[in-house]
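Dear support,

I submitted the protein below through the web form. The confirmation email said the job was done, but the results page showed an empty box. After a refresh the structure appeared. I'm attaching both so you can tell me whether what I see now is the final result or a partial one.
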Amino acid sequence: MNENRFGNVRVLIPFGFGLNCEDETEHAFRMLGAQVDRVHWTDLFAHRHPQRLASYQVLGLIGGFAYGDHIGGGVVLATRVRAHLLDDLRVFLQQGGLVLGICNGFQTMTRLGLLPGPPSGTHDFIATADLAPNDRLGYRDAWIRVAADEKSPCVWTKGVGTLELPSRHGEGKFLVADDATLDRLDQRGQLALRYIDAEGCTTESWPDNPNGSARGVAGVCDISGRCFGLMPHPDAFLHSWQHPDWRQREQPSDLGAQGMSIFEAGLKAAS
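What the results page shows now:
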């Protein structure tokens, strides 16, 4: 892998307060050659980090359980971002910055109003969707299949096709106000990633769809395609040997490192 391929891209990964996927996410970006800074949320809220958010091209919002998710995944973190970093985030987005939110990061983006965002493309940070408890209540930890919408504007899913990824969450059912709203998001290609069954068909049925999201929604982008959140963990499939069936394959390397395709697509758009 060319370690200098995306050496011009700077990535910020905030961590702390119960989040726990900073190592994997940083590893993915660094494997592709990006420059990565890992900074505690406390330093960002207090504006102690010497670099402003606008000096980065990518913001990576990681998985875990921010503030313990006691009142809902991402609720407290989104509230603190809105209180302390909204101006910085607005400038970052206006300059074309990209955001990737994985699991808890997706929940935070949704509750912050980044996703799905307004059709105008100018973020107003008003929440219009939710990620509710799974239809089968409880935390579901399993490998699933997803497929990207080829017509989506999402830069993070360009060319990724179908993927097998680990999924581990208890609040991942994507909800909007009504079917008409879901129709509009679908027509605009904002339902960028969907759960599929063994035959490759979009599914709402458990266990292929771990949460029951309508139309199999596993990931959503904003109208620009630069902000993307997904419930499965591409950060947990960066090497072929991380797949549970890799020893049973005649050529284990054929599995590839499927999660890397999402990080690569995003860095390509940012470079």
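Response: this is the final, complete result; the empty box was a page-load delay. The CA atoms of residues 16 and 40 lie 6 Å apart.
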